Amino acid sequence: MPAIRTEALTKDYSTGFWRPRPSRALENLTLEIAPGEIFGFLGPNGAGKTTTLKLLMQLIFPTSGRAEILGRPVGDVGVKRRLGYLPENPYFYDNLTAEELLVYYARVFGHHGSEAARRAGELLDLVGIGGERALQLRKFSKGMLQRIGLAQALLNDPDVVFLDEPMSGLDPLGRRDVRELILRLRERGCTVFFSSHILSDAESLCSRVAILSAGRLIATGTVSELLAFGVGGWELVMTNLAAATVARLGLRIARATEIAEGHYALELPIDAAPDGLLRELTAAGAALVSLNPIRPTLEDVFIKKVGGARERATFHHGAHRDHREKT
Ligand SMILES: Nc1ncnc2c1ncn2[C@@H]1O[C@H](COP(=O)(O)OP(=O)(O)O)[C@@H](O)[C@H]1O
Ligand SMILES: [Mg+2]
After folding, report:
1. Pocket of ligand 1 (CB under 6 A)
2. More confident of the two residues 166 and 226
3. What distance in angstroms lies between residue 278's CA and the mean position of ligand 1's atoms?
4. Coil, helix or strand at residue 9
């Protein structure tokens, strides 16, 4: 049984006050996420990520299609208790301290008295702000608030967690902490569904990802499947290389970058075996510094796919789609 399943999930918002008309934010999203997966839901701003998460949390309702969590329709009360949710821009009462807020939520989840305080303390420590528990939230930075949001999402020890842009607003150290936290959730068998427009985070975390653009799913698969799709090449770095020699290479190389005097990075297409060129250049007096395959990043694949989808959309649908692409 999948942990999360959506079937042709579609959402139209009604926009325009005087002449309301439907604007499609999500179109026929069909996805299956296995239990224990860390699933990255990727896409540029306006792609429909938050809309999908809100549909799964039943904060809004679909125009058509359906969604199930843990084998039950979304909204099932028994299942709701087993979910955690970090909204995109969590809002908290400024005047409460971190501890007060968490104790409050712990009570909402059914913990009483000292048990609620103990649970709140545990979660604050887990997200690394145990030392700031007595501080009012208005003194917290964006990164610290994000951690409070995470603590809140994990209070009920959920089986499935939905995180909407959990890394946004965090500095590199904060992002690393969130990554480690997500990995710990996986160790406990928790299913994590997180949205992000920061691809490097997904690359290092996810078992599988989906790429959404303008409301449509344009790719899904494991990170390595998606990366295999992009064709790389070779990067050959040489020193003692004369500019005239580089100039003579012409179309045999895709690009030459001079790093320092006589020191070049040459990019070769993937189908050109680098050993022949390496021998020639060595014979001409150059020395090898390094030779590496150029591995495409998720970012390369993303730009290619999203770019392609945008071009097709413009071509086929023309002006009809413009109002949806104001990102
Ligand atoms: N409440 C709303 N009313 C009308 N349009 C909305 C509403 N919420 C989102 N949208 C539109 O739906 C599209 C998808 O938005 P969203 O799901 O927030 O994208 P993402 O989270 O990927 O940035 C955008 O074009 C956005 O303007
Ligand atoms: Mg969003």
Report:
1. 13, 15, 23, 25, 43, 45-51, 324
2. 166
3. 52
4. strand
